[in-house]
DNA sequence: TTTTAGACCATTTAATGATTTTAGTCGAAA
DNA sequence: TTTCGACTAAAATCATTAAATGGTCTAAAA
């Protein structure tokens, strides 16, 4: 078997592990899932898993990264589209609010708040928050460049918007506090963002 | 001692307990503070405390309520002032963002997230969140009535604003992530809220 | 009559040692 | 190159015992 096929087979096995691990982690959570659980689900020995991954933590990171990729793909379609910047922001927020479902394993780890995993939680949180702030900054910058937006402090505004979205995850997704469709709610919020609440006389 | 003086004396002792308890809770947190700690700080026996309060939880609630009163007093000055509605909102947000310092015991309890106290946390959170939403609704309603604001869904907007403020408590107060003054940061955010980010051509 | 506090109870928490489980490694076999 | 059984060290769990704590009772003091 030449080198490329060997690497391909290696990758295939890694992908298989990540897929199965994703399901096992989803079922039991990070803490309660053992590497032996994952191995058994793959019908292999535990040390086989360690041939492909350095540690349990690395497997979990790969799982979360795969889920993040699914979200990134959707978001990149929006960023690269011909939509107006305003519509891009709308589409982005709508898609981003699916994060809690698409990146279920990451959110579960964060909410577990297990003191033994705070380091892992902080690593992941930092990585994905930084990424999100970059996306929002890019959108705000595009809007400013096209003279559609006026934003005094893009860095601050990006963080504020991300913080607001994250804060709303709980009432919108975990508590189901409103009966209107998510689209309606997000639309109202975005209109507040775009046009403000102060009435300006023409 | 007639009845009024008796009641007065009773209240005085309750106030003394709340004051001292506030300090002890602030020092050790709810969980680590024992009723005996509070009693010793007052140079009394533990069962004396139970003569004035039904439970440790009731003492803590009284402590938090006292702190909340300090914040309410400041906010009521704003609500009852002759300021324009826009300036009232500005002043309210500035004052409200002091909550994390003025209501320190409440915030400490919430961040402890002790599973044995989730019930108490939820009771207090519900109480004070409901109160805050009412204040924001009143301000938005006043603005709409004076035709200064245009808000499609006052209930939703109030909750969104409160959620955003709460979400920003961490970066602004606990992580000191920005070097500008708090006033500057809050001002920028409020301008986003009032006027939006979309440039509207006259 | 009101206030106080020591003694007490039931429950919770902490400490401890023993046992089990788990992450990760090694080396031989396939 | 890949797999896995055996193994190790550390971590986690369990059962038991002791200590601590929230709260109560009742008698004494103010």
Give me some keywords for this one.
homodimer, DNA-binding, 2 domains, mainly alpha, 202 residues, Tetracycline Repressor, domain 2, Arc Repressor Mutant, subunit A
Structure commentary:
- 2 copies of one chain form a homodimer.
- The termini of chain A are far apart.
- With 202 residues, the first copy, chain A, is mainly α.
- The first copy, chain A, has 2 domains: 1-53, Homeodomain-like (Arc Repressor Mutant, subunit A, Orthogonal Bundle), CATH 1.10.10.60; 61-195, Tetracycline Repressor, domain 2 (Orthogonal Bundle), CATH 1.10.357.
- Chain A is elongated and about 70 Å long.
- The first copy, chain A, contains 10 helices and no strands.
- Chains A and B meet through α9 and α10 of A and α9 and α10 of B.
- Chain B binds a DNA duplex (30 and 30 nucleotides) through α1, α2 and α3.
Mean pLDDT of chain A: 91
Distance from first to last alpha carbon of chain A: 74 Å
Proportion of beta-strand residues of chain A: under 5%
Low-confidence stretches of chain A: none
CATH architecture of the largest domain in chain A: Orthogonal Bundle
CATH superfamily of the largest domain in chain A: Tetracycline Repressor, domain 2
Radius of gyration of chain A: 20 Å
Q: What is the helix content of chain A?
A: over 70%
Largest sheet of chain A: none
Question: Topology of this structure?
Answer:
2 copies of one chain form a homodimer.
Chain A: H1 3-32, H2 35-41, H3 46-52, H4 56-79, H5 85-96, H6 99-102, H7 104-112, H8 118-145, H9 154-174, H10 182-195
The structure holds a DNA duplex (30 and 30 nucleotides).
């Amino acid at each position: 078997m030449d080198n490329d096929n060997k690497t391909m087979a290696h990758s295939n096995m890694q992908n298989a592990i990540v897929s199965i691990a994703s399901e096992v982690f989803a079922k039991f959570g990070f803490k309660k899932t053992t590497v032996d659980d994952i191995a058994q689900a793959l019908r292999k020995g535990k040390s086989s898993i360690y041939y492909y991954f350095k540690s349990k933590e690395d497997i979990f990171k790969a799982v979360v990264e795969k889920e993040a990729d699914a979200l990134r793909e959707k978001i990149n379609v929006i960023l690269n589209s011909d939509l107006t910047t305003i519509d891009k922001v709308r589409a982005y927020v709508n898609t981003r609010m699916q994060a809690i479902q698409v990146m279920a394993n990451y959110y579960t780890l964060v909410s577990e708040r297990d003191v033994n995993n705070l380091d892992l939680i902080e690593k992941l949180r930092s990585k994905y928050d930084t990424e999100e702030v970059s996306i929002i900054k890019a959108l705000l910058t595009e809007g400013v460049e096209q003279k559609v937006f006026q934003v005094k402090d893009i860095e601050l505004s990006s963080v504020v918007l991300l913080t607001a979205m994250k804060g709303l995850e709980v009432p919108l997704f975990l508590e189901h506090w409103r009966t209107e469709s998510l689209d309606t709610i997000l639309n109202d919020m975005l209109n507040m963002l775009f046009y403000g609440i102060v009435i300006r006389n023409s």
